[in-house]
Amino acid sequence: MGRRDRDETPKWGKRTPPKAERAAAAAELEAEERRKAAGLSRSAEALRTASPRMLGEKSRYLAVDLGLATGIAVYGRDGRLESVRSRRFQSKDALRAASAAILDEVPYVHSVIVEGGGELAEAWERAAIHRGIHFRAVQASAWRSMFLYERESRDGAMAKESAVRIAAQVIAWSETRGISADVGHDAAEAILVGLYGVVQAGWLREVPRFRR
Question: What is the value of pTM for the model shown?
């Protein structure tokens, strides 16, 4: 019997579903497999997950540049930088363990965005979801396309230098007190990841213009 003679319904019906639907179905299948492996029902898993936090005047947006030298930037509800710092960790295990503590240190965190992926990003995602904090992970190319020229993004060293320069302008534009404009590249990248995040989330209506 030829393939055309077979009387069978295609797996997805008569049309191929959009990529987003296929991705969502795959993600749900993976989540179901994880629940089975852990011996959890869907209802039991729901009890472990907090309700999403509501957006309010005191809400904060936290940005993280993942790595053993981690940059952490905090933005206020007005979309301006409130604080930034760097932390160095001895190992990836130490960084994974610190994700929950860092989220608890900052009050009113509504959303968190991290640059990076893999196990480190997954640790942050678990800690965020457990607290009802909205989570997003992006790659460096996302925020670089918003703030850097294409020629600056081609070279890693040049991209870091440009990030430090623009981050200094973000600090000045935000009128952030107690922060030196001369920050390291990990803190600078956290600042730009965060600014990208608040623009994407609609906390700022448009991207601020900085000197290039």
Answer: 0.74
